[in-house]
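To make the argument concrete, we let one protein speak, a sequence paired with a row of structure tokens, as a model reads it:
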Amino acid sequence: MLYFLVEFADQFSALNVFRYITFRTGGAIMTALLFIFLFGPMIINSLRSRQGHGQPIRADGPQSHLLTKKGTPTMGGLMILSGMLVATLLWANLLNPYTWIVLGVTVCFGLIGFYDDFLKVAKASHKGFSGRMRLGLEFVIAGTAAFCVTLLEGDVYGTSIGFPFFKDLAINLGIFFIPFAAFVVVGAGNAVNLTDGLDGLAIVPVMIASASFGLIAYLTGNAVFSEYLQIHHVPGAGELAVLCGAVIGAGLGFLWFNAPPAAIFMGDTGSLALGGMLGAIAVATKHEVVLAIIGGLFVLEAVSVIVQVASFKLTGKRVFKMAPIHHHFEHLGWTESQVVIRFWIIAVVLALVGLATLKLR
């Protein structure tokens, strides 16, 4: 919205700052952060009064959770999404189609997560609605977004997969790019969802990944930088840096309340939405494979669940003491803070590796 002030830059030269993505990204960070600080306590109190006993805790999970986390309200993703939306609508160029595609995925995934959280609270059970129905809806949303991205990019590369470390290697999937891109978005959404199991465990890696993809979006959308780095130029994708900034600001504000002991949980409302957002940005910027590196922590969490389920069904034995893998380390004797901080470190290292691929080609 504020972007349109550049129309008056001829009369007031100071308004030229609104042309710059970097300035508006900083504004989005501060706006989202301030929004959460101002309205966060009110949202938490409202959710606590409406939910009663809060988020149901898994009976088969670590026993300490039944004591320390019982009664904590969920759906904290509403805080994050509210702050992100306000900041994005205020600072982003609303004529940019990539902004609306990614926002559409984020909000729709958030609504699916919200309904799932609502059923869990209403039924006082950690089980939400049908997994097949949920995945079906996610694939429809993600597939629609992927189709819109291919229409925007138009050329052959719009349906191709780029690979890190190789400047010219790209595989054109044609029409099969849409299901591939949908898988990336859905996979990212559910991987972040599985990671959200300890106080602060998911939100910090999400902010790290958002910062990384904010930079990638800015460089990809800039013709000069993309040519220098020999990465595919996607006109207009740079505007997604503003959205990433909004997520960082909202995430910082949420972390203030989610720090141990958490006053609120993100819930599927937030984790599914933020994961879907990261997947959509990766598709829009043609860095789907790099997402698997930067978001490697999320991949690890998802793979641990897949391996655990497959092993138990095939052999009757479990590979991990408990899945997702962060619970495995809790059972090994790590404290919650040890698991969280060490996983943050892993997320930082993976983000640096992922960003290094921009130059190592």
